[in-house]
Specification:
Pfam families: DDE_5 (PF13546). This protein has 443 residues and is α+β, with helices and mostly antiparallel strands. The protein has a domain of 38 residues. It contains 14 helices and 12 strands. Strands 1, 2, 3, 4, 5, 6, 7, 8, 9, 10, 11 and 12 form a 12-stranded mixed beta sheet that branches. β5, α8 and β6 form a beta-alpha-beta unit. α2 packs across α13, α3 crosses α4 and α5 packs parallel to α12.
């Protein structure tokens, strides 16, 4: 309990005393409980003062979760600065997470594509942005919003779109060239841009956010322009069959200078300098970095081409990663995009341990609070783990096992008429109850 309060101290100036007390009871219960993480389940594991009605009132009230999560993250970075641990590059990453739900009354219910089930499902979709520390490779969720409005749900990357008639191919007759830096953003893209600006407003001068990392859903000009409008650089992925052209090199022909040179193909890439080459299990991987034009983008792109070749069959595949920062080195571009996957671990922990798949709330505020609480616990648990002396791993399951052992041990000691606070001098008494830990404590 002392570690929980110590970690939550950063929230005292920004939330009321009642909310702080209720949140402490809820967190203590969630750390120890088994089974589904619902309001009823939390109330069964909560200590005195955590009745079902109290839990219900907390979920029905509005809370500024983004500000609360940032307060925890900021304090963590401030401690590192105090200990003279330099803070390196911090990325802003984003993705959507789909939660399956049945029924018809849940706020924001819609049809979304679930990558885990590989099919459209009835459920809720949440947009999440996380701060990713490149040095420690830890991702901390900071902004979470539900995709609610019809326009947003229809234009979201994971939305299922009705099949319609295909329009005529080619350029419409009489159309004129347009300024590709001026784009019309979809409702989803506008909400995503608002979340980016919100993250920038929270971090302020404390963190210099330069790169926004997203999956291939932003691998288009609209995605690039929405990120550039916020003053950040985009790191994303292009389609593997994208038509890319090298800048034209040669004598100008005519009054209008030529812009596009040779098209980038596997044969043309062989003439470029290889940045990195590896051979593992008969698979040769070559990495190229080139600055190229894409006919739907208004400016040069910094593209890293990863070509994998099966030396036995001769079959090849390629991945195109890109950024608008022309000075970003190939190894950092690859690393930053790879680290984006840390946000998937955030979603996994939120679903498996903190109730993102379990909550049964239906109203707007309670649904938002349930989803935000689960992702708040992802951030909170990562900052809590280093303070638990008996924990020698970064396993969330082990963290919950330790707190469950503490709860059981205190209940048993109190039932014998002893005061647990005076009896439990150190953590050794808890170890007998820590059954179920994955990683044993080091001797």
């Amino acid at each position: 309990m002392n570690e929980i309060i110590a970690t939550l101290e950063a929230l005292r100036p920004i939330i009321s005393t009642r909310d702080f007390r209720q949140l402490t009871l809820i967190i203590e219960a969630m750390l120890a409980m088994t089974g589904r993480v619902t309001m009823l389940g939390i109330s069964r594991w909560a200590e005195k003062g955590g009745s079902y009605r109290t839990i219900q009132r907390f979920f029905n009230a509005p809370h500024d979760w983004s500000k609360m999560r940032w307060a925890l993250i900021k304090r963590h970075f401030d401690k590192r600065t105090t200990l003279e641990e330099p803070i390196g590059v911090v990325l802003l990453t984003g993705d959507e997470v789909v939660v399956t739900k049945s029924g018809k009354q849940t706020h924001g219910l819609g049809k979304f594509f679930s990558s885990t089930q590989n099919q459209p499902v009835n459920g809720l979709c949440f947009l999440n942005l996380s701060l990713l520390d490149v040095d420690t490779r830890h991702s901390y969720p900071v902004i979470t919003e539900q995709l609610i409005r019809d326009g947003v749900k229809e234009t979201a990357p994971k939305a299922t779109k009705p099949k319609g008639e295909k329009g005529k191919s080619g350029r419409p007759k009489g159309s004129k060239n347009k300024d590709r830096t001026v784009v019309e953003l979809t409702p989803f893209q506008l909400q995503l841009q608002g979340c980016i600006r919100q993250a920038q407003g929270l971090s302020g001068r404390d963190l210099k956010l330069c790169y926004f990392v997203y999956d291939g859903a932003l691998g288009n000009n609209n995605g690039l322009q929405l990120v550039k409008q916020t003053g950040m650089h985009l790191i994303s992925k292009l389609r593997h069959d994208s038509e890319l052209y090298l800048p034209y090199v040669g004598e100008p022909n005519g009054s209008k200078p030529k812009k596009y040179g040779d098209r980038v193909t596997l044969v043309r890439l062989e003439q470029e300098t290889v940045c990195q080459e590896t051979l593992e299990k008969n698979i040769r991987t070559r990495v190229y970095q080139i600055q190229v034009w894409h006919k739907k983008f208004p400016e040069l792109l910094n593209v890293v081409v990863i070509v994998r070749t099966n030396m036995t069959t001769g079959s090849t595949s390629k991945v195109l990663l890109f950024s608008d920062d022309l000075n970003l080195a190939y190894d950092k571009l690859i690393l930053y995009y790879q680290l984006r996957f840390q946000i998937e671990f955030n979603f996994r922990d939120a679903k498996q341990c903190w109730g993102l798949e379990d909550f049964m709330n239906t109203k707007e505020d309670s649904v938002s609070n349930a989803a935000n609480l689960s992702l708040f616990m992802v951030t909170f648990s990562q900052l809590l783990m280093p303070q638990i002396k008996s924990l020698d791993s970064e396993s969330v399951l082990d963290l919950k096992t330790v707190f469950r052992a503490r709860k059981y041990t205190r209940r048993i000691i109190n039932s014998l008429g002893l005061k647990s606070e005076e009896f439990l001098v150190d953590d050794q008494i808890f170890q007998a109850a820590e059954i179920g830990r994955i990683h044993k404590k080091a001797a």
